[in-house]
Amino acid sequence: MKKIVVALDGHSSCGKSTTAKKVAQELGYAYIDTGAMYRAVTLYFLEHYVDLTNPKKVQEALANIEVSFHRNPKNGRNEVFLNGLNVEDEIRKMYISEKVSEVSVLAPVRHAMVAEQKKMGKRRGVVMDGRDIGTAVFPDAEVKVFMTAEVEIRAKRRQEELLAKKQLVPFDDIVENLKKRDFIDSTRAESPLKRAEDAHLLDTSYITIDEQVDFVLDLVASALALKELAD
């Protein structure tokens, strides 16, 4: 069976990661959470007090960063490692969410992470979610989906995720954080968040995760059928 690249782009907390994981499981593909890569870089920058306005310091820091994914046999999750250390839980905290867009907007950071992502998907058979997968990382992806949802619904989902991890964050703060990230991500000069011309729009405001997964899997089935016919 031929393998393809499935690119899921869109706003924060609209179900991208959950959908991408389930789609990857169904297909037997690798799942790459590109947002986690930027979060890991943000964690490193914060821990090492990297001056974001100093290009030299940013480049020096990037040279010392290795982000990798390893499957946890206990929970079956692909977890993020920063220089050999498991940072999966730490990078999901609110203080990282508040800074990640400021770090990911930097051109050297995006160049470094996009290069790594392209390596990871070189052999196809991957599901990637992020902000610029269908536009910058894999513009030739066979399936592209742009996901979104109403900001209040996204904030509610994000708050529930944080509460599950015993992090209490006011709802209004989460709404403002999401709006700020949306603005920075969509207006940055380097690989801005935008819907690729050939991406299918998926509004997840009022549908279930299973419905989101089915939407993507239907697109994958069509893409694979077309690929078989073409070959």
Automatic annotation (TrEMBL):
Keywords: ATP-binding, Cytoplasm, Kinase, Nucleotide-binding, Transferase. GO terms for cellular component: cytoplasm. It is an enzyme of class 2 (transferase). Its EC number is 2.7.4.25. GO terms for molecular function: ATP binding; dCMP kinase activity. Residues 6-220 form the Cytidylate kinase domain. GO terms for biological process: pyrimidine nucleotide metabolic process. It comes from the Bacteria. Its main location: cytoplasm. It catalyses: CMP + ATP = CDP + ADP; dCMP + ATP = dCDP + ADP. ATP binds at residues 10-18. Signal peptide: none annotated. It is found in: Cytoplasm. It holds the Pfam family Cytidylate_kin. Belongs to the cytidylate kinase family. Type 1 subfamily. This is Cytidylate kinase. It comes from Rufibacter glacialis. The lineage of its organism: Bacteria, Pseudomonadati, Bacteroidota, Cytophagia, Cytophagales.
